Amino acid sequence: MTELLRLITRAQKMLRAAADEAMSRHGVRIGQNLVLEVLWKTDGLTPGELSAHLGYTTPTVVNTASRMESAGLLVRRRDPADGRLVRLYLTAKGRAAQEPIQEARRRIAEHATATLTEPERRHLHSALEKILEQMDGGPGMFGSGDVHGALGDTSDGTTAAGQPLGPDAADSPPP
User: Fold this and answer.
1) In this predicted structure, what is the pLDDT of residue 138?
2) Is pLDDT larger for residue 138 or for residue 11?
3) 68 CA to centre of own chain
4) For the whole model, what pTM was predicted?
5) What contacts 100, CB < 8 A, 6 or more positions away?
6) The pLDDT of residue 69
7) CB 45 within 8 A of CB 85
8) If both were cysteines, with which of 20, 44, 73, 168 could 94 make a disulfide (CB 3.0 to 4.6 Å apart)?
């Protein structure tokens, strides 16, 4: 079983590096694409609403949104009906990133699975969903609900697996 974990970890690192390289050309880091994907569908959400969509804590989303605002991908505006709320809106740069980011991710996925048959792709998808569901089963030995890692927000600059962060790694610029 440890061999399976090693293979999954290696594949994740390679896919993450490829995705980060492809997206950084458009000013987007790993994890930020997840925020963008939600805002591309529903612009103007509050950080709390965005957190609920993504399944992450609000502070994780707020930290990522701050970096995205600095990168010119989104802006924060007070809610006109309730001044206590802040809403996140895409900028032109954030909207313009949609097509190239989605295309880059599609190409990476196609390349990564090029040697798999269609039934193997479906089986891999199903198996990974089951692994995610099992590992994110809520509080307990391994499940944690918000496994910091998808947006990369941990206190020591690494993911839960100890890997360096992508989008938020010590506020470093894209490679």
Assistant:
1) 59
2) 11
3) 12
4) 0.73
5) 25, 26
6) 97
7) no
8) 73
The rounded distance, in Å, linking the Cα atoms of 36 and 97 is: 9
What is 38-92 written as a DSSP string?
HHHHS-SB-HHHHHHHHT--HHHHHHHHHHHHHTTSEEEEE-SS-TT-EEEEE-H
The total number of residues written for the chain in this structure: 175
**Cβ neighbours for 130, distance < 8 A, ≥ 6 positions apart:** none
Please state, for a pLDDT cut of 70, what percent of the chain lies above it: 78
Spatial neighbors of 101 by CB under 8 A, at least 6 apart, are 22, 23, 26, 28, 33, 36
Q: Pick from 60, 69, 71: which is nearest to 31 by CA? A: 60
| Cβ proximity of 171 and 157 under 8 Å | no
The answer to whether the beta carbons of residues 20 and 175 sit under 8 Å apart is yes
Q: Report the pLDDT averaged over residues 77-106.
A: 95
Phi, psi angles (nearest 5°) of residue 142: -125, -35
pLDDT at 137: 76
- CA atoms within 13 A of residue 155's CA, in its CB half-sphere: 0
pLDDT, one tens digit per residue, over 33-61 is 999 999 999 999 999 999 999 988 999 99
Instruction: Give the residue carrying structure tokens 């798999």.
Output: 116
CA proximity to 72, closest of 19, 20, 27? 27
